[in-house]
Amino acid sequence: GKYRVVSTKAMPGTRWINLLIEQDCRVEICTQKKTILSVEDIIALMGDKCDGVIGQLTEDWGETLFSALSRAGGKAFSNMAVGYNNVDVNAATKYGVAVGNTPGVLTETTAELAASLSLAAARRIVEADEFMRAGLYDGWLPQLFVGNLLKGQTVGVIGAGRIGSAYARMMVEGFKMNLIYYDLYQSTRLEKFVTGMSGSSVKIYQLLTLILMLICFLFAAYGQFLKANGEQPVTWKRASSMNEVLQEADVISLHPILDKTTYHLVNKESLSMMKKEAILINCSRGAVVDEVALVEHLKANPMFRVGLDVFEDEPYMKPGLADMKNAIVVPHIASASKWTREGMATLAALNVLGKIKGYPIWSDPNRVAPFLDENSAPPA
Ligand code: GLV
Ligand code: GLV
């Protein structure tokens, strides 16, 4: 191959490798056994000639690595992740390296994990599993592992981008929860999901009351229809502040990016605003939550439950968290479905290849285009 592309980790599937090989690239995958590579390991891996790198969210892509990549003649870096808080994009720009990430292919998979954690927390699945395995089950009891019914409760979504919107859709459509969301921007993506199945019936009702005879008839018919279906329509709204979500929601799921503005977005004060029996889910980045404050809150409020996929100092947990029965913890696996991980690897390879081969670059001149449609659906 004419170009040398380095991947700091073995990635699933063969498609990503084949794409690169077919296009004149030699692919080198790091063979080190350690889970997390240091900056020095990566510099050694890049060597004196490296056209592009596929890296991981556990690596610190800052000034040191981008200057080394640029010295090796490299012009492209792609994170195999949608999040890029581990990448200093300004440093990359300074050294003429384009940066890519892998949005779209992990949206549904990640939202499904957030939904799984929501259900597991609501129904205390992990505690109950541990109880069973410990041989403690000695007969059905009316009060054994009583949890929360989600139907009719309110789900709060903080950060309504691709993942937050997909999660909202699942909880509203699947479990008939009411929705409140907070985002800096109005999310047409999310609102499109929910308008079809939501509180618009209330507006129809208000409109109809203005038209007399016909109304009475339609209203009665509509009432019959609802009764026949046994359903209350769900309601949804965009909150004017995050605090509104914290105060009103029964289940709150965090889906912002991590940057200076969202660091410790959920802290002692925000936790104190939540309902005593609320459920908090985090599949974004650990540092969005003040984990020390969270442990204190879990200790003081045994009915408050949390489902965490991410942690402030991965791979570590803050002291005390592992002992909390009201916490469910999983090791950053939200995007871990086979289809998604192969898709992420493919997108990362296409990002690097695109820059090397000089394919047209998407909107931001320094960001490599994801070549797949970001709304691309999983295969049937
Ligand atoms: C995973 O955390 C990702 O950002 O893709
Ligand atoms: C519980 O198992 C029930 O039958 O109510």
Automatic annotation (TrEMBL):
Record keyword Hydrolase present: no
CDD domains: GDH
Pfam families: 2-Hacid_dh, 2-Hacid_dh_C
Assigned GO CC terms: cytosol
Residue span, D-isomer specific 2-hydroxyacid dehydrogenase NAD-binding domain: 117-190, 235-334
Domain (D-isomer specific 2-hydroxyacid dehydrogenase catalytic): residue spans on this chain: 22-358
InterPro entries tied to this protein: D-isomer_2-hydroxyacid_DH, D-isomer_2_OHA_DH_cat_dom, D-isomer_DH_CS1, D-isomer_DH_NAD-bd, NAD(P)-bd_dom_sf
Entry keyword set: Membrane, Oxidoreductase, Transmembrane, Transmembrane helix
Superkingdom in the source lineage: Eukaryota
Residue spans crossing the bilayer: 204-222
A GO molecular-function descriptor: NAD binding
Family that this chain belongs to: Belongs to the D-isomer specific 2-hydroxyacid dehydrogenase family.
Protein name: Glycerate dehydrogenase
